[in-house]
C-alpha cells in the first residue's frame, strides 16, 4: 500500500526547512567572519596541487570550516526538533549525518570552484561580482548558491538514512466494527 503524506510529514519538512534556513545563516555567518579575519583574498592559493594547474584556495578552507560549524548546528536542531530523536540519537546517527554532510561538502566545494574558476562555463562574472561591497563579493554568492543546490539532497539522505529510524511509526487504525462484521 503506498504511503500517504500526512500533516506530520508536512510539519517535519517545514521544521527541516527552518533548521536548514538557520543553518544557512550559521554557515554564511561563520564564512563571513572567517573571511573578515583572513588577511588575504579568499581566492588566493592555500595549497597548490602539483602537477596540475588546480589549487586548494582559501575559499575552500573557509567553506569547510563554515560547514563543520553549521553541520553540528543542524544535527542538534534536527535531532531535537525536526525528527524528535531525543536521546535516541547516538554517535552512529551523528556519523551518518556528518557523512551525508561530507558528501554535500564535496559537492559544494566543487560547485564553489566552478563558480569562481576563470575557465568554468558557470563562472560568476567579475564585472558584476567585483568585491566592491558585501553583496558583490563573488565568494559569498558562490557559497550561497552551492548551499541552495546541495540542501535538498542533504534533506533526502538525512531523512532516509540518518533519522529514518527515529520517526514514530504508528500501527494502522483498528476497526472493531469491521472485525465484528467479519466474525
From TrEMBL:
InterPro entries: GtrA_CellWall_Glycosyl (IPR051401), GtrA_DPMS_TM (IPR007267). Keywords: Membrane, Transmembrane, Transmembrane helix. GO terms for cellular component: plasma membrane. It is a multi-pass membrane protein. It is found in: Membrane. It comes from the Bacteria. The chain crosses the membrane at residues 12-34, 54-73, 94-116, 140-161. Residues 15-163 form the GtrA/DPMS transmembrane domain. GO terms for biological process: polysaccharide biosynthetic process. The keyword Transmembrane helix applies. Pfam families: GtrA_DPMS_TM (PF04138). Belongs to the GtrA family. PANTHER family: PROPHAGE BACTOPRENOL-LINKED GLUCOSE TRANSLOCASE HOMOLOG. This is GtrA/DPMS transmembrane domain-containing protein.
